[in-house]
Amino acid sequence: DAGITQSPRHKVTETGTPVTLRCHQTENHRYMYWYRQDPGHGLRLIHYSYGVKDTDKGEVSDGYSVSRSKTEDFLLTLESATSSQTSVYFCAISESKTSDRPSTDTQYFGPGTRLTVL
Amino acid sequence: GESVGLHLPTLSVQEGDNSIINCAYSNSASDYFIWYKQESGKGPQFIIDIRSNMDKRQGQRVTVLLNKTVKHLSLQIAATQPGDSAVYFCAEIYNQGGKLIFGQGTELSVKP
């Protein structure tokens, strides 16, 4: 998994509770991403980061926030979880050889976090 | 482009045969394409990539073909093995947006 870990790997929570998922990388890559994967929708980008404290929205960012206080960690927070956020969440990293934002180079994925919101 | 429908296309092959998985991509301005393999319970795993200035690229037992005229990508797996059973996704990157867009995915099932 290209030096990427995600925690927790599984979580069950209740509607309305806050949830934070963590992505940790050991590759010192500049770009980090959060995706969700649902049947019928494939992988969809939630948020991404192009450096420490630099983040931007993806296509399904509503209800999610992110933070990146250091290169190796990218946190995804659901401020008030809803049942529609039940999904498998994947973190990805990439290193860009250009100034494109987000990176146009290969993304490598972590093992995923399965989140169930009851 | 975006996935539609709830059921993945399935390709079933005999062990030892060659497999061809097809993908139609959405954006004629996309200039970088990647094939990922995803096994059950795991994250997508990079297999092979190709830039739009190429029409063929070979890896170990895999070949990717790109036809920009009809916006078609294919992944060929030689001598398919049971360990190749997985869902395969193509993904495109549109240079000016940088967003990785995943295709629907194809489930490959290898019969021993």
Task: Explain what the structure shows.
The complex is a heterodimer of chains A (118) and B (112). With 118 residues, chain A is mostly beta strands. Chain A is built from no helices and 11 strands. Chain A has strands at 4-7, 10-13, 19-25, 31-38, 42-51, 54-57, 64-70, 73-78, 87-94, 108-109, 113-117. In chain A, strands 2, 4, 5, 6, 9, 10 and 11 form a 7-stranded mixed β-sheet that branches. In chain A, a hairpin with a 2-residue loop joins strand 7 and strand 8. The model of chain A has no long low-confidence stretch (mean pLDDT 90). With 112 residues, chain B is an all-beta fold. Chain B is built from no helices and 10 strands. Chain B has strands at 10-14, 19-24, 30-38, 45-51, 56-58, 62-67, 72-77, 86-94, 100-102, 106-111. In chain B, the strands form 2 sheets. In chain B, strands 1, 3, 4, 8, 9 and 10 form a 6-stranded mixed β-sheet that branches. In chain B, strands 2-7-6-5 form a 4-stranded antiparallel β-sheet, with no helix packed on it. In chain B, a hairpin with a 5-residue loop joins strand 8 and strand 9 (100-102). Classes of the chains: A mainly beta (118), B mainly beta (112). Chain A binds chain B through residues 1, 4, 33, 39-43, 45, 58-59, 90, 92, 100-112, and chain B through 2-6, 31-32, 34, 36, 41-46, 49, 89, 93, 95, 98-100, 102-105.
